[in-house]
């Protein structure tokens, strides 16, 4: 319980700092058969103001599925977006447990702005790509889901830009030294509600496996480096069941 409280505090505290990279939520649809459709909309503690996340996944066979995940934030000083696609395999073990594994890639853009006056403004921006693989195991029921997932990612930072004499010049130099990163991002997802719609809470950690100095650097402790924690909370909808239930009621 103390560890959970620490994670919550860390995530909220870090979210008040600059955001160059933030782990997006894991998409954990937990399919059991063909033609199932899952979607979610949630808020993420990625920036000063909460970021919005959109996810959708569809099982196009009894074994294989595809997904899309998007993250978007635009507040007074943080601008962040990220989009990714994935394909994967799922297996239903029994009435309650399912395993999945997905692999994919995405592209993101991050920018920081500080407006002091009409002649004294500062900015920094960068792009990044991410290749990833995500195994998942979950216990699901009509009322409650508990899911554990692990995302192993390769993060590439590029196209770093700022203006001369910017307050971000030191950040730019430091980030430029650590453009290539291997990340380990575990997550736990809890859902509670009804068969076709549930409230969702997910806690995601991000650890930089290759460049541990990012964690000790004052710059990266302030800018939400790939050593951070996020809380994601929102609504998860089993659209195929919702459509089926609505259709049956109209009959």
Describe the fold and architecture.
The chain has 251 residues and is α+β, with helices and mostly antiparallel strands. It has one domain (2-188, 210-250). It contains five helices and ten strands. It has helices spanning 2-14, 169-177, 213-216, 218-222, 239-250, and strands at 37-44, 51-59, 64-74, 78-92, 97-117, 120-140, 144-162, 180-193, 197-208, 228-238. Strands 1-2-3-4-5-6-7-8-9-10 form a ten-stranded antiparallel barrel. Mean pLDDT is 80; it is low at 1-16 and 215-226.
| Category from helices, strands and their pairing | alpha+beta
Strand line-up in the sheet with most strands: 1-2-3-4-5-6-7-8-9-10
Total number of domains: 1
Question: How many helices in DSSP terms?
Answer: 5
Q: Residue-averaged pLDDT, rounded?
A: 80
Portion of residues in beta strands equals over 45%
Low-confidence stretches: 1-16, 215-226
Largest sheet: 10 strands, antiparallel, barrel
Show the helix and strand layout.
Elements: H1 2-14, E1 37-44, E2 51-59, E3 64-74, E4 78-92, E5 97-117, E6 120-140, E7 144-162, H2 169-177, E8 180-193, E9 197-208, H3 213-216, H4 218-222, E10 228-238, H5 239-250
Antiparallel strand pairs: 1-2, 1-10, 2-3, 3-4, 4-5, 5-6, 6-7, 7-8, 8-9, 9-10
What is this structure, in a nutshell?
With 251 residues, this protein is an alpha+beta fold.
List keywords for this structure.
251 residues, alpha+beta, ten-stranded antiparallel barrel, 5 helices, 56% strand
């Amino acid at each position: 319980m103390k560890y959970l409280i620490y994670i919550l505090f860390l995530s909220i505290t870090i979210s008040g700092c600059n955001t160059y990279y933030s782990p997006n939520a894991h998409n954990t649809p937990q399919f059991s058969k063909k033609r199932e459709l899952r979607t979610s909309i949630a808020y993420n503690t990625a920036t000063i103001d909460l970021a919005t996340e959109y996810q959708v996944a569809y099982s196009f066979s009894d074994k294989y599925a595809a997904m899309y995940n998007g993250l978007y934030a635009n507040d007074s000083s943080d601008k962040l977006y990220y989009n990714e696609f994935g394909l994967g395999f799922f297996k239903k073990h029994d009435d309650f447990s399912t395993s999945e594994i997905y692999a994919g890639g995405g592209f993101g853009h991050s920018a920081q702005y500080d407006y002091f006056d009409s002649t004294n403004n500062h900015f920094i921006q960068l792009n990044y790509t991410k290749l990833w693989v995500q195994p998942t195991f979950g216990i699901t029921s009509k009322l409650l889901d508990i899911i554990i997932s692990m995302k192993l990612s390769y993060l590439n930072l590029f196209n770093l830009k700022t203006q001369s004499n910017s307050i971000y010049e030191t950040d730019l130099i430091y980030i430029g030294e650590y453009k290539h990163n291997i990340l380990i991002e575990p997550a736990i997802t809890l859902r509670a509600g009804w068969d076709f719609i549930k409230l969702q809470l997910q806690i995601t950690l991000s650890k930089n496996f290759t460049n541990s100095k990012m964690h000790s650097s004052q710059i990266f402790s302030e800018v939400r480096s790939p050593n951070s924690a996020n809380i994601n909370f929102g609504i998860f909808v089993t659209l195929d069941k919702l459509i089926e239930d609505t259709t049956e009621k109209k009959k």
